[in-house]
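User: Please fill in residues for this 78-position structure.
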């Protein structure tokens, strides 16, 4: 759906199909495509959010390990 330009052949084919289907059915199909696009967009956002949470958890774990190493180096008998 990102490529919004059609060739002359594609435009003619689309016009022929629209004429054959009728405007109401075309609107239903467009709505279905829009809903699919929205669903995919939400999945991608969730994946990005999950990835961010995982990276934050990994960073937190690494920072805790660094603090432990630092504390053992500064205060070896603690």
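Assistant: Residues filled in for all 78 positions:
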């Amino acid at each position: 759906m990102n490529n919004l330009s059609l060739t002359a052949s594609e435009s003619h084919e689309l016009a022929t199909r629209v004429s054959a289907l009728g405007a109401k059915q075309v609107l239903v199909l467009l709505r279905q495509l829009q809903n699919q696009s929205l669903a995919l967009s939400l999945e991608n956002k969730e994946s990005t959010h999950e990835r961010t949470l995982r990276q934050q958890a990994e960073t937190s774990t690494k920072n805790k390990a660094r603090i432990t190493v630092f504390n053992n180096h500064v205060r070896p008998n603690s």
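For context: The chain has two helices and no strands.
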